[in-house]
Amino acid sequence: MKTLINISILFITVTILFSGCGVYSFTGASIPASAKTVSVQYFPNKAQLVEPILSPTFTNKLRDIFTVQTTLEMVEANGDIALEGEIVSYKTTPVAIQADQTAAMNRLTIVVNVRFVNKLEPEKDFEQKFSQFLEYQSDLPLNSVSAELITAINEMLATDIFNKAVVNW
Predict the structure, then answer these.
(1) Strand 73-74 vs strand 81-97: parallel, antiparallel, or unpaired?
(2) Partner of 29 at 20 to 30 A CA spacing, among 2, 117, 133, 165?
(3) How far is Cα 58 from Cα 149, in angstroms, rounded to an integer?
(4) What are the structural domains of the chain?
(5) What CA–CA distance (Å, rounded) separates 96 from 153?
(6) Residue 87 in contact with residue 112, Cβ under 8 Å?
């Protein structure tokens, strides 16, 4: 009898969770049921300091997160959900200044300006800057750690953008 009650409670809970407007996924994404496509335009690097791998790796990471964590089809342009923008800052700054006025650590910061358009729910459109950073030892040249840092920062930025665009907590 106790097992039957537990199964009934589980069934009711699952039914409530998956009913309503939109399509839900285990990632927390809430996308309108009628949305079928997403487009992510190339994000050019308009920062003063240009790192050649930054634009393509960031754009690909953003495309990946939408294709892996949703059922939307990636299209070249004019998706039901569309993202575009530019990288506006790529800079390194000293942090953790020591007594001898030298930096023990440096911080690499990347800022991306994003314009999000939801054709089915225009009230969710936004334009916003997203910023993330990581620190690295100041005795290491930036070019020796940049690829690893860029990969990690791109992951954080893509997650922040994805959450802002389609996770409605």
Answers:
(1) unpaired
(2) 133
(3) 12
(4) 36-166 (3.30.160.150)
(5) 20
(6) yes
